[in-house]
Amino acid sequence: MALTDFPLPASAQPVQSGICSAVSDAPVAVEERLDDVLSEILESTHGAAPGAVLSVRTGDWHYIAAAGYADPEVGRPMDCASPFEIGSNTKMMTAVVLLQ
Predict the structure, then answer these.
(1) CA–CA separation, 7 and 44 (whole Å)
(2) Is the pTM of the predicted complex or chain greater than 0.85?
(3) Residue 75 — left, alpha, or beta (φ > 0 → left; ψ -120 to 50 → alpha)?
(4) What does each of the 100 residues of the chain score in pLDDT, given as a tens digit?
(5) Cβ neighbours for 65, distance < 8 A, ≥ 6 positions apart
(6) In what order do the strands lie in the sheet with 51-57?
(7) Which of 46, 44, 50, 47 is nearest to 16 (CA)?
(8) Phi, psi angle pair for 78, to nearest 5°
(9) How far is it, in rounded angstroms, from Cα 46 to Cα 11?
């Protein structure tokens, strides 16, 4: 799947960037596209997810960014080091490992 497989509507607006101590060293074009993907994720949740962190690592580069708010009531921006509850995500990973 290529980055171009994630079409964005013309209405997608950038969201406020959060705080990241890690430095992204992804190519500029990839970084811009992933910023758009992160913005679209937040826009598509219609406020259900006020903030998000996206991290993509390849053998050649690492992209990490935070967007939105960790606490929208007080205006605290999302931080790349913010802990997240993973919920039931491990069930899918465990199933894949078992199927392998």
Answers:
(1) 13
(2) no
(3) left
(4) 444 444 433 333 344 456 676 678 889 999 999 989 888 888 887 778 888 888 888 989 999 998 888 888 888 888 888 777 777 778 888 888 999 9
(5) 17, 18, 20, 24, 34, 35, 38, 53, 54, 80
(6) 51-57, 62-71, 76-77
(7) 50
(8) -65, 145
(9) 13
